[in-house]
Structure formats: C-alpha cells, structure tokens
Amino acid sequence: xxxxxxxxxxxxxxxxxxxxxxxxxxxxxxxxxxxxxxxxxxxxxxxxxxxxxxxxxxxxxxxxxxxxxxxxxxxxxxxxxxxxxxxxxxxxxxxxxxxxxxxxxxxxxxxxxxxxxxxxxxxxxx
Length: 126
Hints:
This protein is mainly alpha-helical.
C-alpha cells in the first residue's frame, strides 16, 4: 500500500489551481499575473509581518479577526512583530496574540509596559 503524501498532494493542488487561474490558497478566481486573490495576499502579508519565519508561533488562528484594532494598527505601522513585543514586555507571544486577536486585556503591569514601550497609550490604565 502506497503512503499518502500530504505535501505532494498540496503541491499538485496548487499547480492545478494556478493553471486554471484560481487562487492557490483558497481556490477563488484571480485576475492578471497573481496566483492569490486579494484577500489571501493581504492575509499572507499581515501574517508575515506579525509572525516572522524565524520566530514561528505555534498557533493557527480560527479566524483572522482583529479585536484590538488600535494595537494591531500600531504594530503594523511601527513594523513590530508579535514575538518582538512579547520579548520586550516579558510575556509569551501567545499572550500578545490573545490581546490582538481575542480582545483580552493584559495585567496592569503589562499594560504599563506596552504603553511605555510603544510610547502610545494603547490600553487604559485603571
């Protein structure tokens, strides 16, 4: 019995989608020379900024929904990654992920550190 190769199957799927002018990631129609639709390109660009390859996050987002838009925009504009912010504050990258994507609030000490590090009042201090 032959062993099924997931990686090979995905390569073949992407190749067939590219030939049929479909997004290689989601399968929607694409126009021009692009191999990905606008939504997938935007997702990949934002994910690459927030999760650089040298510091991989062990997390698959259930949805690409940003709950803390203010913090997200600051990270994008200042080109700070989630692992970088986590390291500067002294928390896990998963915690910062929760702040950005799940809308949870950090402890008061961590709120102060984030506000100080970014020089912007991201979180209200009680």
